[in-house]
Design a protein that fits this description.
single chain, 378 residues, alpha/beta, 7-stranded parallel sheet, 14 helices, globular
């Protein structure tokens, strides 16, 4: 088939775009893909065409509006210029007003209705993020009513869409996010002590990895920092990966005021998060709302015990006390989880991490590609 794929950022390390990237890389020999995106790390230029949409990447609300305006123009111009007819138009969420298949990993209406009030925030950046959610939520009903198929990443998101938009129930297919299992295993020659030393972390520290591109408030970082302050365990350290410089600057200042300056390390944006997971003793993501966070799968595949909230997707494989610790997204509960983690012997944490790795084997890349083959065959 000739398939047009519309996505903002189709790169290996992007949460949604990374899933698209893996699908394109795995199926490009079976289908003819053309990707319309702001940014695309083309894994197979001889098989996949790329049409760059020159929309601004930030703020997301402006990106959303400009992508809606520019993407159709570039699409129809490409069709006329190359005299090509596509068999399928595939897009992400409500980022396009025409298409056959919608690949969605977020229900913006559910998020605004249930969780926005629980997340503190202020300033222009926060207001622009809320505006982006609002714009998506306004367009979701129209898009979901008109597309032929909706691909979601988890059973939880399927439930939410059916609740918010009952008319789309028969259109939904679940394709769980993939994890490259072999790639996430720590290599024997990885110098864990040396890597930790680069970031001021000692061998006897209990290090938690927190990974988020942004949206620190929704991901539960404020509550996590409050919990760190409450439990006051000097050997407990937080290694935070991701975030733009302005966001990191604000949180660094917050940590200094809280007396956590020497216990929280901000590594910023990284092209490869694996070394940070390999250097950690556990992974934490006390998020208020997710659909199926890929980084949680990657952390589990890297044999890290998880300290997480019962999020969509994660709830499908996490068992409290077996392969991780489940907490509610509030500081007191997170603090109890942190204390349990630190009080556990290193051997116990390793055993829980091994169980986590075993739990995510069903989310292999091969299984992900097989499910997409079924989708396209239909």
């Amino acid at each position: 088939m000739r398939i047009a794929v519309f996505d903002y950022k189709t790169t290996r390390n992007n949460p949604i775009g990374g899933c698209h990237w893996r699908m394109l890389n795995g199926l490009c020999k079976e289908h003819d893909f053309t990707v319309f995106a702001l940014e695309f790390d083309n894994p197979c230029p001889e098989r996949i065409r790329f049409v760059r949409i020159p929309a601004p990447k930030r703020p997301l609300a402006l990106c959303y509006v400009m992508f809606h305006l520019l993407a159709p123009i570039y699409y129809f111009f490409h069709k006329l210029r190359h005299r090509v007819k596509f068999d399928l138009v595939q897009m992400v969420e409500s980022n396009l007003l025409f298409g056959d298949l919608c690949y969605t990993q977020f229900c913006h209406r559910t998020f605004l209705r249930k969780y926005r009030g629980q997340i503190a925030g202020s300033g222009l950046a926060y207001r622009l993020r809320v505006l982006d959610h609002w714009l998506h939520a306004r367009m979701e009903p129209w898009v979901y009513r008109h597309v032929k198929r909706i691909i979601v990443a988890s059973e939880g998101l399927a439930r939410e869409l059916k609740e918010e938009y009952p008319y789309c129930a028969d259109k939904i297919t679940i394709v769980s996010n993939p994890v490259e299992l072999d790639r996430m295993q720590r290599p024997a020659d990885f110098d864990r002590a040396a890597f930790r030393k680069q970031y001021g972390l000692n061998d006897d520290d209990v290090v938690l990895a927190f990974v988020a591109l942004g949206h620190f408030e929704r991901k539960g970082l404020p509550q996590l920092l409050d919990a760190f302050q409450q439990v006051n365990l000097p050997k407990l350290k937080l290694l935070s990966v991701g975030g733009m410089p302005e966001l990191i600057g604000r949180y660094k200042a917050k940590c200094e005021k809280m007396g956590l300056g020497d216990r929280v390390v901000f590594a910023g944006m990284q092209k490869d998060v694996r070394p940070f997971l390999w250097a950690a003793d556990a992974f934490t993501l006390p998020s208020f709302y997710e659909v199926f966070p890929l980084v949680a799968l990657e952390a589990a595949a890297a044999s890290l015990p998880l300290l997480v909230t019962p999020m969509n997707g994660v709830e499908e494989f996490i068992v409290d006390g077996h392969n991780g610790i489940l907490v509610q997204p509030e500081s007191k509960a997170i603090g109890v989880g942190l204390k349990n983690l630190v009080d556990s012997p290193a051997e116990r944490r390793a055993a829980v991490g091994s169980q986590a790795a075993a739990s995510v084997k069903r989310y292999s890349l091969a299984a992900f590609l097989d499910r997409w083959k079924v989708v396209y065959a239909g």
